[in-house]
Amino acid sequence: MLARSYIGSGNASAAADAMRRWQQTGATGAPEAASVDRLSEAVADLGDRGYWTWRLAELEAAAAMGRSVTRTELAAAHAALGHDEEALGLLADAVEGEERDLLTLSTDPVWDELRGDRRFRAMERQAQSMRFAPTLSGGGRRGRASGG
């Protein structure tokens, strides 16, 4: 969450540093050192775009290994990289699956470039109408999906 906050404010270096600190804690779910090394290199080379390129690769690798990856997170990485159609398609799947991550559509800066798209606005309205839906309390009807 901290890294995502930094990247949302345009500070890719701080996002990479946060990931490094998390990795060094050895906490459950923390990234491996090699992964953080790749992130640091990507950020040094490409800034914010490097972060999102790394993030998309990490999500796709996790999905390929059968780990749970939300369509919303995949869509966010695609949106940040300018892959608008891919992002919108994944968001449509996330809305259908009532993913909990959709609740940040109105506030997360990663969606700023898509806010003018009528399809995005429709999905944003749907997500807001889900805010208090009983199905979200349990993570959504199909709150997580594997694949990419």
Secondary-structure blueprint:
Blueprint: H1 2-8, H2 12-25, H3 33-46, H4 48-64, H5 71-80, H6 84-96, H7 118-130
Helix pairs in contact: 1-2, 2-3, 3-4, 4-5, 5-6, 6-7
User: How many beta-strand segments?
Assistant: 0
Approximate strand percentage:
under 5%
Number of helices: 7
Uncertain runs with pLDDT below 50, 5 residues or more? 136-148
User: How helix-rich are the residues, as a percent range?
Assistant: 55-70%
Mean pLDDT: 89
What is the molecular shape?
Answer: globular
Secondary-structure element string:
HHHHHHH
- Spatial separation of the terminal alpha carbons: 21 Å
Structural class: mainly alpha
Largest sheet, if any? none
- Assembly state (oligomeric): single chain
Over the alpha carbons, how many angstroms does the gyration radius reach? Answer: 15 Å
